[in-house]
């Protein structure tokens, strides 16, 4: 089963300085690659998005969140159709930092996913357990995945499995565990959505991916790419990650 591979940069609240230089060097690297092994998407903060999309037409970009309403009295928020209006193609939803700090709920995320899809954005939907939840991981993942609409095109959604305890810590699950958990996510999706969806949807790994571990992680048979935080802010390191697929 050939699934699309993705290497996605999540800049979080970083990248203000030298953002264009960073995007340009990643873009140049991607153009020079003989084998296009994965789709590369960069998700900078909102303030940089519009300018980078205009300047670097060869790259794909995503927002890091969107509201579920299309407009209205929601101070500080950005809607899916606003992202679409600047030719943004992707949006990260449900990142653990937003689930924690913005207290995003499954119900709210369901509405956000629907709104993003209605606006023709591809959703990068993040799931993952906290350290104290490892023993009930499957239940947690099932609950988070239940925010997905039941009728959904696998090309319009990307799942990113990011164990919360692995984000920014330098710790990762064992390779065997990563592969097994991804396989489990596929089986949950087969029950929750459909067998065909579960076979076609791309499931990425995120959490302390770097140039030293990316070859091992990205070539596991159930892993379809990476969502990269810290290492995506260093162009050389990120390009090495992009080049990890065999
Ligand atoms: P990290 O972050 O690569 O810095 O661990 C990943 C993420 O939060 O998406």
Reconstruct the topology from this structure:
Blueprint: E1 6-10, H1 19-32, E2 39-43, H2 46-55, E3 60-63, H3 80-85, E4 90-93, H4 96-101, H5 106-118, E5 122-127, H6 137-145, E6 157-161, H7 175-192, H8 195-200, E7 202-206, H9 214-218, E8 225-228, H10 235-242
Parallel strand pairs: 1-2, 1-8, 2-3, 3-4, 4-5, 5-6, 6-7, 7-8
Bound molecules: 2-phosphoglycolic acid.
Search tags:
alpha/beta, 246 residues, binds 2-phosphoglycolic acid, TIM Barrel
Sum this structure up briefly.
This protein has 246 residues and is α/β, with parallel strands linked by helices. It contains ten helices and eight strands. The chain has an eight-stranded parallel beta barrel, surrounded by five helices.
Describe this structure in words.
- With 246 residues, the chain is an alpha/beta fold.
- It has one domain (6-242): Aldolase class I (TIM Barrel, Alpha-Beta Barrel), CATH 3.20.20.
- The protein contains ten helices and eight strands.
- It has helices at residues 19-32, 46-55, 80-85, 96-101, 106-118, 137-145, 175-192, 195-200, 214-218, 235-242; strands at 6-10, 39-43, 60-63, 90-93, 122-127, 157-161, 202-206, 225-228.
- Strand 2 (39-43), helix 2 (46-55) and strand 3 (60-63) form a beta-alpha-beta unit.
- Helix 6 packs across helix 7 (175-192).
- It is globular, with a radius of gyration of 17 Å.
- The chain starts with 5 loop residues before the first strand and ends with a helix.
- 2-phosphoglycolic acid binds at residues 10, 162, 167-168, 206-209, 227-231.
């Amino acid at each position: 089963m050939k699934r699309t591979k993705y290497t996605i940069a999540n800049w979080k609240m970083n990248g203000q300085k030298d953002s264009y230089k960073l995007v340009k060097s990643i873009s140049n690297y991607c153009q020079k690659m003989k084998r296009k092994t994965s789709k590369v998407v960069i998700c900078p903060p909102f303030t940089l998005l519009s300018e980078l999309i205009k300047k670097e037409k060869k790259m794909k970009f995503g927002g890091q969140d969107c509201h579920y309403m299309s407009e209205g009295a929601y101070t500080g928020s950005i809607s899916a159709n606003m992202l679409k209006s600047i030719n943004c193609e992707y949006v990260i939803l449900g990142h653990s930092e937003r689930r924690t700090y913005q207290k995003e709920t499954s119900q709210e995320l369901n509405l956000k996913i629907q709104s993003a899809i209605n606006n023709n954005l591809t959703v990068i939907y993040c799931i993952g357990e906290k350290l104290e939840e490892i023993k009930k991981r499957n239940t947690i993942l099932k609950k988070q995945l239940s925010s997905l609409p039941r009728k959904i095109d696998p090309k319009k959604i990307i799942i990113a499995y990011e164990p919360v305890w692995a984000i920014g810590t330098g710790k990762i699950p064992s390779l065997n565990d990563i592969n097994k958990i991804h396989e489990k996510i596929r089986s949950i999706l087969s029950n929750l959505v459909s067998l065909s969806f579960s076979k076609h949807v791309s499931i990425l790994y995120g959490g302390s991916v770097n140039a030293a571990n990316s070859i091992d992680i990205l070539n596991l048979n159930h892993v379809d790419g990476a969502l990269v935080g810290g290492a995506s802010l260093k162009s050389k390191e990120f390009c090495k990650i992009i080049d990890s697929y065999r």
